[in-house]
Amino acid sequence: MAGGAAPGGSVQSETYREARLWLLLPAWVTLGLLTLAPLMIMLVYSFLTKEFRGGVIWEFSLGAYDQFFFDRGLFGDDAPKIEWTYIGIFWRSIWQAGVATILSLLIGFPTAYFIATRPQRQRALWVFLVTIPYWVNLLIRTVSMKFLLRDEGPLNDGLMALGVISEPLGIVNTNLAVQLGLFYSYLPFMVLPIYAAVERYNFALSEAAADLYAPRWTVLRRVLLPAVKPGIVAGCILVFVPSLGSFLAPDLLGGAKNFMIGSLIEEQFKGNAGNWPFGAAASMILLSMVLILLIFSARQSQKGGA
Amino acid sequence: MAKPHDLRRYPGFLAITILCLVILYAPLMVVAVYSFNASASITIWEGFSLRWYADVFTGPESAKYRDAAWNSFIIAITAATSASIIATLAATAVLRSGKFRLRTVSIGLISLPLMVPEIVTAVATLIFFNALAFERGILTILLAHIAFCIPFAYMPISARMQGIEASYEQAAMDLYATKRMAFTRILMPLMMPGIVSGFILAFIISLDDFIITNFVKGAGVETLPTAIFGAVKQGIKPNIMAISTLLLLVSIVMVALSWLIGRKDQKT
């Protein structure tokens, strides 16, 4: 993803030039057929007519997008008004993902900075410690979070035993629980790119600033932060994007009132709503938002790199 | 190192780092500890017991979880193997076959599953199989897993290949090795640590997946995550915590393995 496939150039060769097509074919076929083609078909489905118990009727219709944005009354013949339900769900998702991103940045930046300024030999171990939880099943991590936060859970018990609170905080089934869940799910994604950026940072710049009497925190704000900004932007994207479309955290921690995009989409296919074109349209809108964000950030990082 | 005026140090950053690690590990630790609880309640601690681990393997729901674990394992092994092979071949084309017009497009296609939100991939894949009237079952799960495992296998494999100079293969071919021999006898052995890391990462990613699996699985076919999700919907029970702890251990052991292979590799 972020800088992952940067062509190094130094060790490239032309040894297998003749075999190129055969080497690439399996990847093209697999990903073309199982990732790209499905996205195209999903786009088509979003313009079809819904069948009532799931599935579609092959008849062109703008109904799905219309339902998303406009309210035409119970019988569909009222003057169209803006439909706020789904826009509201998207807006809440953006808000939840945004809060989770800011929380991750507040914890992730100091952590990444601290690790990057450890002696060389220790760094790999610190990074490893931060990454392990990412490799643990996301479902299990979300369930663990719920177990910890619930009213009779260890967190509330502990705080009550210490006398900090007199009754459970009631975190589960609130927006805060979802934000904490998302923050917990993707925190390692914030640390890694910032760590990489700080590790490459030339601390002579900080020393130069300090020699010119810049106080410590001014050095951080005016010299270090601008220099590692690409890493921060990458970290924010890596947390924000999966948070936006997440399903497990809102479903398990948020309860019915804290619906996010992921749950809205899921309900069209697995739940009771059973409106495939609408689910496909909502997915297309989510995908477009994410792609715009990724293109925007790629532009930014290109500017930064030049 | 600990100079009083060390510019690199900021007060509080160590504390936040420790807080970060506590946040990352505390929920997992709590569940691991409570999985050894003797009580049938998940709230009250009644002392240490292996009761719930016994329950996972021999209890009334053990058959369900054994089937789910077996499905997960078969899918993860097959998907990770296929993804590693596909990724190795693709990396060879991208890094060892000169410049070509579709190079950027190929890299983009390989990283596509990382850019598309998981729920969107899940919807798209479900619709795709539906449009083809492809019956949903273990095969549809497997196909979907192969696709999204490819970028995870590709990352360490391509990183490793970038670290191997082309001169090794050149030397072999100067000594009359064919290209096929240069590939199988020189490049592949040198690539092994990268391929093993790629395989392990793909294996974990497949084993962990819930969202896509949940969409493309057929009725009655469960993997461990979908079985756990179904059970958790009824409330968190102690046997779920035991299964979670076991799965957590598998992930940690595999990541540690991948890390050790990578580290040993850097030293030599």
Automatic annotation (TrEMBL), chain A:
One of its GO terms (cellular component) is plasma membrane. InterPro entries: MetI-like (IPR000515), MetI-like_sf (IPR035906). It holds the Pfam family BPD_transp_1. Its main location: membrane. Residues 90-297 form the ABC transmembrane type-1 domain. It is found in: Cell membrane. The keyword Transmembrane applies. Belongs to the binding-protein-dependent transport system permease family. CysTW subfamily. Keywords: Cell membrane, Membrane, Transmembrane, Transmembrane helix, Transport. It is a multi-pass membrane protein. The chain crosses the membrane at residues 21-48, 94-116, 123-140, 176-198, 276-296. Gene3D superfamilies: MetI-like. This is ABC transporter permease. One of its GO terms (biological process) is transmembrane transport. CDD domains: TM_PBP2 (cd06261).
